[in-house]
Amino acid sequence: MSAMDEQISEASEAFEHFIAVATGPLSLRELANEGWVDVAEDDSHLAVAALFEAQGSMLGSSAAFDGLVAIALGMDVGDWITQDLRLMLPTLRDRHLHDGKGIVLGRAPEADVLVLVDAGVRRIDGASVLVASSDAIDPTFAVTELSVQDPGGDFIEVDPQRIDRARALIDLAIAHETLAAVSKALAIAVANVADRVVYGKPLGSYQAVKHQLAEVLEAQLAASALVTAAWSDISAFNALLARGSVDRASRVAVASCLQVCGGLSFTTEFPLQSYVRRLLVLENLVGSRLARSDSLGRLVAAAGQVPRLEVARDLTRVSA
Prior knowledge:
The chain is α+β, with helices and mostly antiparallel strands. The protein has helices at 3-21, 28-33, 36-42, 44-58, 64-72, 77-82, 160-195, 207-231, 236-261, 272-283, 289-303; strands at 86-87, 101-105, 113-117, 120-124, 129-133, 143-148, 154-157, 197-198, 201-202. Helix 7 (160-195) packs antiparallel against helix 8, helix 8 runs antiparallel to helix 9 and helix 9 (236-261) runs antiparallel to helix 11 (289-303). The radius of gyration is 20 Å and the shape is globular. It starts with a helix and ends in a 17-residue tail after the last helix.
């Protein structure tokens, strides 16, 4: 385990305790008070990996995207906090905003919201923002759907490279949270098949069950390596490529863990269903898998070649 991995594990454990005692989704102010914003300004890799892996493990949620985007755009996080600004994301499965509809993570906005556009940021008056719904397939994932009556508002021009970095950080953050949820789902499935006895033998001793869970671990390790590699050169392409591998790990985990755990896994009493719900939401956050594949293809077509992403040979670390 590298020094960075040790730092991430220690910080993630601290955030897990913070999430465990929180009474709801963490606000940007609360994250700032805990020092997360300062860490994010100095080392975005450490800040993103630690917090979002803790969220995936503990099924927590926060307004961390607000801080990530503010930092990536060169804006003052303190202004976001004092003015209670919130970042509006596209609705689930959408990569871009449509018909003035979007979502915010965490509590519902009480002031202006900001929207990322290709050439900058648009600030929308909070008076024109209506809360449409707060329902989600994952009740532990705080998401509020919004409808904007007047999609106009003040336009703030920002360097396009900063916009690309902000979007890449969002994708990498989702990737880290997904990997942590995959790890928890796998741990629950392994514990279940180890304890459950079928025909006088633990279910986990059967070769078919071993192979299915091994496929989950393989997909998780491969995705973790790509995510780590993407941090060495943060770009829209690398983030999308890493998240595509994470999507595969998520789908393999959901299918295999549900199957080996049987009907029990579909009950609300069994913890696996909570992580399955979280994984289904994360897969569709800021675009569906197909939308991201389309974006990745367009980037390759525009570049005229497939960029090379160097992946470390050491695959010993599994996000947890």
